[in-house]
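in:
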């Protein structure tokens, strides 16, 4: 799967969506104006309407659509977490002890590490017994996966891996952001019908409510008469009831008359118009479902193919689809299933009318035929050569790295990495406190003086009490080796995200101080700090708007990346110049390397922030140039691997890890 091609394809889909939306809005406005005009003319028996009638009606329709769309967008400002919460899903804790939940978390961890993204948080819809799942979020490193309870209980490990591979395809190819935006857009289209239904319910409810209230007060007054208007007490209480009760009864009768007559007479027009608008609203819903189907169906075939490519096990995905067809199915009973239907793994709602047109997913039979008859060929496991610096460098085919595709070898490597990780470290990463301690341990210096400065930095966050546990974690990290640094950060992310915004801010500040304790930031420290800042950013809707479509406009930033990569790969000045020249030539820049300068973490961070605004096509050229520079000697050092993956994460282009020898 070519990540950049999919990203660009997703952007094209966005423009198609905008065009479809404009056509749908125009259709809704036109039909609304036509039907309301006919309705008003029939009710009033007068076709001489004021000249402002049509402009006001069109304006009101547009405002209703925009307000409802913006309101839904506001509700979803939290990204994937917001989507999970509105469907009533439960956050699955990282320390879950249930065997089925633990197995599922392990599958998600493997796929995340293999694809080079932060481990997504996982949510479960406990009330749903069918088999279904969805991925949501605004960027690959801030995604969530929501699954039904039926998926956890009915699927085995291979089947889970097939479904999660499908969802990770959506995470990697740019579908998620479009899917979340689509929810708000379609809420706007359905706004007219929703508003009309509310008007009708309100008008019908007014008389019923007034009658109920009047009956209640009349019974209370009657009780008062029965208890108090007896004998000589009547002389006192009769004037009281007359003074208090008469105006109250008159008021209730008047309100009832106005409500009833408003519904039967003056409200007749409103009811007729509301009924007509419901028809118009149905047209909006109709267009919305067509747009969902147009955006969703073809991408499901692509995600299935990508899942088979990731796992090299089509049988798992095939078996999961067959269980959906022959068992509990995939329908979701949640009230919002219709709004989210385009995001699910399989068809979440029934499409009784014009099924082929409105179905958000291909049929199970079509998907099975695509996997078994037209799916990607499963490559044989290649042999990867061992370099003299085993564990520190890898011999990697350039084409495999340049495409940044997740392969079965990446999944196998992730499995081996997780199996090799000390159990104490795995358990620590499942809690926010343990994850923070692991992050500190990654940065902690062996120099006693620097260590004291660093300890005071995270002590200011209230984490000073965990100092004695850092030595044990540092030993576990040392056993894992430098190559385990990025997987540890990925596994720590879900627990760290559960902290409050203020706690995240304090953690990032402490991490920054730890890295700068010796007045300079090494490349390894920069990697840790940059990844944490990117993954723990409070701006879930993050991704800045694409503004840069030409690498020449960000030439200084690109040159800084190439220089940094060249120096990370070799200490020899001649080799550095050769690496820089290879990368610069790849994108048409001059091959002459700028004068030497110390590594500047702040400048590098600013450069990545600006490069994040490039278009997917330009990002592909940038990453390809970086790969050319790193692979000039035919191998990737650990520092180059980490820097490449940090660059990819910072600009929203997740890169899978390089493959180490088995």
């Amino acid at each position: 799967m070519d990540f950049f091609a999919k990203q660009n394809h997703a952007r094209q889909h966005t423009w198609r969506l905008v065009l479809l939306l404009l056509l749908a809005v125009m259709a809704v406005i036109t039909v609304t104006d036509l039907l309301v005009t006919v309705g008003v003319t029939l009710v009033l028996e007068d076709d001489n309407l004021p000249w402002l009638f049509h402009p006001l009606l069109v304006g009101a329709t547009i405002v209703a659509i925009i307000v409802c769309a913006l309101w839904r967008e506001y509700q979803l400002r939290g990204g994937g977490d917001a989507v999970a919460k509105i469907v009533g899903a439960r956050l699955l804790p990282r320390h879950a002890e249930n065997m089925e939940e633990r197995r599922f978390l392990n599958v998600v961890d493997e796929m995340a590490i293999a694809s080079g993204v932060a481990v997504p948080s996982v949510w479960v819809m406990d009330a749903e017994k069918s088999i279904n799942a969805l991925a949501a979020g605004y960027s690959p490193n801030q995604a969530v996966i929501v699954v039904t309870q039926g998926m956890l209980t009915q699927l085995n490990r291979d089947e889970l891996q097939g479904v999660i591979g499908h969802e990770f395809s959506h995470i990697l190819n740019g579908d998620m952001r479009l899917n979340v935006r689509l929810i708000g857009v379609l809420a706007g289209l359905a706004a007219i019908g929703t508003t009309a239904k509310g008007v009708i319910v309100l008008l019908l409810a007014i008389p019923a409510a007034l009658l109920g209230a009047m009956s209640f007060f009349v019974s209370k007054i009657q009780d008062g008469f029965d208890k108090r208007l007896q004998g000589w007490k009547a002389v006192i209480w009769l004037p009281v009831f007359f003074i208090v009760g008469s105006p109250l009864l008159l008021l209730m009768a008047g309100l009832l008359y106005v409500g009833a007559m408003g519904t039967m007479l003056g409200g007749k027009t409103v009811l007729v118009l509301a009924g007509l608008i419901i028809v118009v609203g149905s047209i909006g819903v109709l267009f919305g479902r067509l747009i969902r189907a147009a955006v969703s169906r073809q991408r499901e075939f692509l995600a299935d193919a990508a899942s088979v490519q990731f796992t090299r096990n089509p049988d798992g995905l095939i078996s999961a689809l067959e269980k959906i067809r022959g068992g509990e199915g995939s329908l979701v009973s949640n009230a919002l299933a219709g709004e989210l239907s385009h995001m699910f793994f399989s068809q979440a709602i029934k499409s009784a009318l014009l099924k082929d047109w409105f179905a958000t997913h291909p049929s199970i039979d079509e998907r099975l035929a695509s996997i078994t008859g037209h799916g990607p060929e499963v490559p044989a496991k290649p042999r990867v050569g061992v370099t003299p610096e085993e564990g520190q460098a890898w011999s990697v085919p350039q084409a495999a790295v340049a495409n940044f595709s997740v392969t079965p070898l990446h999944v196998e490597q992730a499995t081996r990495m997780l199996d090799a990780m000390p159990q104490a470290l795995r358990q620590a990463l499942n809690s926010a406190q343990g994850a923070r301690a692991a992050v500190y341990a990654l940065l902690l210096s062996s120099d006693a003086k620097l260590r004291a400065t660093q300890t005071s930095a995270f002590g200011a966050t209230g984490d000073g009490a965990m100092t004695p546990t850092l030595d044990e974690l540092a030993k576990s990290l040392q056993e894992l080796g430098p190559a385990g640094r990025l997987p540890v950060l990925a596994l720590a992310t879900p627990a760290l995200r559960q902290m409050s915004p203020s706690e995240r801010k304090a953690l990032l500040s402490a991490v920054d101080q730890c890295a700068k304790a010796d007045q300079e930031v090494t490349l390894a420290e920069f990697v840790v700090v940059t990844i944490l800042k990117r993954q723990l950013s409070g701006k879930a809707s993050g991704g800045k708007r694409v503004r840069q479509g030409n690498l020449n406009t960000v030439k200084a930033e690109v040159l800084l990346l190439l220089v940094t990569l060249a120096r990370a790969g070799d200490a020899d000045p001649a080799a550095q110049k050769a690496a820089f020249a290879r990368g610069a030539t790849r994108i048409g820049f001059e091959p002459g390397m700028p004068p030497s300068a110390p590594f500047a973490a702040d400048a590098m961070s600013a450069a990545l922030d600006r490069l994040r605004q490039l278009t997917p096509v330009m990002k592909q050229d940038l990453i390809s140039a970086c790969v050319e520079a790193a692979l000039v000697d035919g191998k990737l050092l650990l520092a180059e691997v980490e820097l490449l993956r940090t660059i990819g994460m910072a600009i929203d282009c997740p890169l899978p890890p390089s493959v180490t020898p088995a």
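note: DSSP finds 27 helices and six strands in the chain.
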